[in-house]
Write the structure tokens for this entry.
Amino acid sequence: MKAVASVNDLDTLQVLAHPIRLRILAALRSPASAAVVARGIDQPRQKVNYHVKELERAGLVRRVGERRAGNLMESLYEAVAATFVVSPRVAWTDPRRTGALADQVALESLVAAGERLQRAAAQLLDRAAFDGEQIASAAVEAEVRLAGEAQRAAFLSEYVAAVGPLLKKYGDRDGEPYRVMLAVHPQPEERQ
């Protein structure tokens, strides 16, 4: 099972959006039959079996084996990931967004960095929630005011010059790896 999987298409999101299916996915963090899941979430077995099959068709769960239960053989299923995150790209149906991302490499990088951060945060949250781990993490956010292209370029140049030595100093192979991210973008206006 993967730690985190991204939902990148509308059809999969529609399958995932059903409240019973979310409960089934949570129950299938470890292999189980539809009957066991049904008892665990207090739903009829037939209903859970239907939803498990829909989740399987969408690629969100997979069959991982079978076991004998009395005179019957039960299929065992497991979620393909411990956590699912929904990519914002799912809701972007207007092709102008795809075109803008293709035309603006820096903007595409910003969107991809946001998606990576979302997946990492979800994975770390699972480690804290399910493994009881204390997660050493930090988030630093600041606002700067840049008057134009020349000032933006100067800021980035000075930032790289200031952070470069720190990255080199702490970038050796000893110790636990941490990801450091800086995103520079105009502050979006809040829309009413």
Q: What stands out?
A: The chain is about 50% helix and 15% strand. Strands lie at 2-7, 61-69, 72-79, 81-86. The mean pLDDT is 91. The helical segments are 10-16, 19-27, 34-41, 45-57, 95-103, 105-131, 149-170.
